[in-house]
Amino acid sequence: MPSIVSARRSAVIPRGGAFAALEPHELAAPVIRACLEDAGLAGDEVGELILSNALGAGGNPARVAALAAGLPDHVAGLSIDRQCAGGLDAILLGHALVQAGHHEVVIAGGAESYSRRPQRSRTFADGRPPEPYAQARFTPWPDRDPDMAVAAADLARMQHITRAEQDDWAQRSHALASLHEARRAEEIVSINGAVNDSFTRTLTARHCARAKVVTGDITAANMAVAADAAAFVVIVSENIARRLHTRGLSLIAGATLGADPEQPGLAPLPAIQKVLTQAQIERTDLFRAEIMEAFAVQALACMRGAALPADIVNPAGGALAQGHPVGASGALLVVRLFHALRCGDGIALAAIAAAGGIGSAALFEAT
Predict the structure, then answer these.
(1) Is 35 tagged catalytic?
(2) 343 in active site
(3) Which member of 73, 109, 137, 177 lies 3.0 to 4.6 Å from 321 by CB, making a disulfide possible if both were Cys?
């Protein structure tokens, strides 16, 4: 079975911050090099680099990142875009390539720069001027393709999750992230001097009450801020893992499924159920669960819908206290699990929702 033998990330920095001048490949390259160094592997042993990126200018940012990291020319690089789920999907795809025998070493993860995202415009056949847009289409039906914040507000109303509950979860996320700041140091590669997630702060009920309302009960305090970051893991074959003699993670089960595009926040639930069923694992068997916090209501709805105990969900905080670097966010969950599980035994779950109603989930255990 393949193993994840190293996992690192950059700090997560809100757009316009310390990473504002960096392109995605400039965020990715130092993290890739640190992953290889941690694993004790040379660049010429790498067969493929899979990079998730959702906001970039296209092309093949994985190839650019591979060259920037000093990987040999034979590493072609594979770029994927499944929005928020892309970083986790990159890891699932990398695992499948190693398991199938196509490569012995694959680096997989994501890199995103909200700060340097290009301006996008739609063109028209009738000669009208191009029309700028901020969000790509995720369905062919305008009336079934809601803005993510609007969908989150609808979810809160549908599930009767109050603003107070969402604000409490946001405060919890910041408090736990602050408490575990020192432990996260081993995850982070210093880039431009940034060694901590700069958005984490003391968030109080008073701050939440004064937060700008985005729509409905969704506010600037209970939704994740747009951010820049990179996160990667190294996946190796069983033969390489035996040679390295290192502790890591094995993937028990992984799934990515489509769901109702009008309720993207609930999309992880079918994927979570599928991986638990595949692995024949009960929720009570889980040591830890990392659930994406693009919105507090999303995390709460997924935790409750999947019947996960609250004390195992995001015990060191989540994206509400860090930020949401779209294409890298799924990989950030796995980096966190890697460092949590390498110090002990247990089975852990990572789950994330993406625009358009796509959910990805994976189960991991320490090897």
Answers:
(1) no
(2) no
(3) 177
